Amino acid sequence: MAIPTPEPKIFACSQSIVLAEKIAEAFGMPLGNVITSHYSDGEFQPSFEESVRGSRVFIIGSTFPNSDNLMEMLLMIDAAKRASARHVTAVLPYFGWARQDRKDKPRVPIAAKLVAKMLETAGATRIITMDLHADQIQGFFEKPVDHLFASTVFLPYLRGLKLENLTIASPDMGGSKRAYAYSKFLESDVVICYKQREKANVISHMELIGDVTGKNVVLVDDMVDTAGTLTKAADVMMERGALSVRAICTHAILSGNAYEKIENSKLEELIVTDSIPLKQDSKKIRVLTCSKLVADVMIRVNTNRSISSKFLM
């Protein structure tokens, strides 16, 4: 007599509970019960309060700093593995530490590779993530990686705006591939910003490659941190005759005085996903949920179906 396969189970790291609840609802099942115990020195211990033996376990958590968020994901993966889960899928809507994907100067780490190895060592058998800072990070893993694109969330919204003379822009040379992909679907022109950095998060000079006169511009990037690049690009484009400038960024890190920069900028609006929870509200920031996209991919992974239809880019 065949033993039935246990139902999948979904658990959330504490930093992503709100998003995980939306994902679980779209998946069609409740979140599993996790209790986290804290020691007085800051150490913590997550505990699954239900059996996961033989189950496919999905653990949802974005690993943005501080490092406790990554550590919590690692501990929960390890706990699931030691509790005899059949598969452990780490669902990281935002894959933190991804900007350190290569040695750009001597004697520095490749943090993205280190994080990939830690996730696998902890016991992750599959990774689901979205809009990696660099596509090649997938090669740091020996386990399957489902790399989703937030374009499936953003494109319907952009089409709904019905902007005339639409132009897609990349805030830097590295994002040109992403910009061209959006322009292909929207049948629009492309412009590129060329920037020089004085140091990390500080721009010394920016030039615009292309014409934005009389255009409604949409900047496309994978993340927004200090918002210095986006607000500077918006200023340059408005000075060059753009009618309006919007920005689409998958991951809203928004550190330092980013909210203030956005409020005082010439950006019409900043459109982001809920891969990272906002620290405060802003009338210029619109949040689109990625929960249905992630849930649909989780369902397909659980039933061993193709997810290629989710790759618009």
TrEMBL record:
GO cellular component labels: cytoplasm; ribose phosphate diphosphokinase complex
Short name of one Pfam family: Pribosyl_synth
CDD domains linked to this entry: PRTases_typeI
Domain named Ribose-phosphate pyrophosphokinase N-terminal: residues: 9-123
Record Gene3D superfamilies: 3.40.50.2020
Catalytic reaction(s) noted: D-ribose 5-phosphate + ATP = 5-phospho-alpha-D-ribose 1-diphosphate + AMP + H(+)
Enzyme Commission identifier(s): 2.7.6.1
Alphabetical UniProt keywords: ATP-binding, Cytoplasm, Kinase, Magnesium, Metal-binding, Nucleotide biosynthesis, Nucleotide-binding, Transferase
SMART domains on file: Pribosyltran_N
SUPFAM superfamilies for this protein: PRTase-like
Swiss-Prot/TrEMBL GO biological process terms: 5-phosphoribose 1-diphosphate biosynthetic process; purine nucleotide biosynthetic process; ribonucleoside monophosphate biosynthetic process
Molecular function per GO: ATP binding; kinase activity; magnesium ion binding; ribose phosphate diphosphokinase activity
Source taxon at top rank: Bacteria
Protein name: ribose-phosphate diphosphokinase
Annotated organism of origin: Planktosalinus lacus
Gene: prsA
